[in-house]
Write a structure and sequence with these properties.
Blueprint lengths: L9 E2 L5 H11 L7 H10 L4 E5 L5 E10 L20 E9 L9 H12 L4 E6 L4 H5 L4 E2 L6 H4 L7 E6 L11
Parallel strand pairs: 4-5
Antiparallel strand pairs: 1-2, 2-3, 3-4, 5-7, 6-7
C-alpha cells in the first residue's frame, strides 16, 4: 500500500464515515462516538471534516472541527442538530492518525487548514487527551485551567485539558460563557 502524503488530505464524504468509525474505534477505544455524531458534524460543517485516505479504502487519519461557543465544548457522542448562532470559536473535535502513520507530520496540514477556518471566529479551542498538550502548543494553543470547565470535560476523562488558541490579532475574550 502506498504511504499517505500530507497533500492527500481532502474533505470527508458521507461514504467515508464507516472507515472513519473504524479508525476512531482503534485510536479512541475509551471514547466511543456513534455514526450519528460523525454524520451530524459532516452535515453541519463539511469544510471542517477532513480525511486522509489510503488506497485500500481505509483512512490513515481524519480531522473534525466546527463552530462552537468558546468555553462550551460539547460532551462526547452528542448530536448537535445545529451550530450555535453565537459561535465565537472553532472547536477541533478530533485529529486522529492511525498508529502506523504517526511520526510523519501528516496531521500538521489538517491542523493548519482547520486553523484557517477559525480566523473569522477569533479563536480555536479543543480538549486535549492522551497527553497531547505539547503537540497542540506547537500551534499556539495554551491550557485553560478554569474550574467552571471541569464538569464540561468530564466525558473526556480525568487527564483532559481544555486548550485555547486566539487567532492572531483577535480581541481576547476571557472566562466561560
Amino acid at each position: 500500500m502506498k504511504a499517505p502524503e500530507a497533500a492527500d488530505w481532502r474533505r470527508m464524504e458521507p461514504g467515508d464515515v464507516p472507515a472513519l468509525m473504524a479508525l476512531s474505534a482503534i485510536v479512541h477505544p475509551d471514547f466511543y462516538e456513534g455514526e450519528a455524531m460523525f454524520r451530524d458534524r459532516l452535515a453541519l460543517f463539511p469544510e471542517g471534516s477532513l480525511v486522509l485516505p489510503l488506497t485500500d479504502g481505509s483512512l490513515a487519519a481524519y480531522a473534525i472541527a466546527y463552530p462552537v461557543r468558546r468555553f462550551a465544548p460539547p460532551p462526547l457522542d452528542t448530536v448537535l442538530g445545529r451550530l450555535p448562532a453565537d459561535a465565537d470559536a472553532l472547536y477541533i473535535h478530533d485529529v486522529a492518525v492511525a498508529s502506523e502513520w504517526r511520526g510523519r507530520k501528516l496531521a500538521e496540514p489538517a491542523v493548519e487548514r482547520l486553523l484557517a477556518l477559525a480566523e473569522p471566529l477569533g479563536a480555536t479551542v479543543l480538549v486535549s487527551v492522551y497527553g497531547t498538550p505539547p503537540f497542540w502548543m506547537r500551534f499556539g494553543f495554551r491550557p485553560v485551567d478554569d474550574p467552571a470547565l471541569r464538569d464540561k470535560l468530564a466525558s473526556y476523562g480525568e487527564e483532559a485539558v481544555f486548550m485555547l488558541r486566539e487567532t492572531p490579532g483577535a480581541v481576547e475574550k476571557r472566562g466561560p460563557h
